[in-house]
Amino acid sequence: MVSIIVPVYNLDTEEKQNLFIESINTVDDSNNLWINMCFIYNQCDMNSDRVFGILFHEMYHKLLNHAIRFNKKFPKKDRDHLIRNGLFGSINLKSNLAMDLEINTTMVEDNIVTKKFWEIMGGSYNKDYTGLTWEEIYDNHGTEVYDDYIEILCFSAVQQEETALSEKMSP
Question: Which residues contact 149 (CB under 8 A, 6 or more apart)?
Answer without folding.
Answer: 93, 97, 124
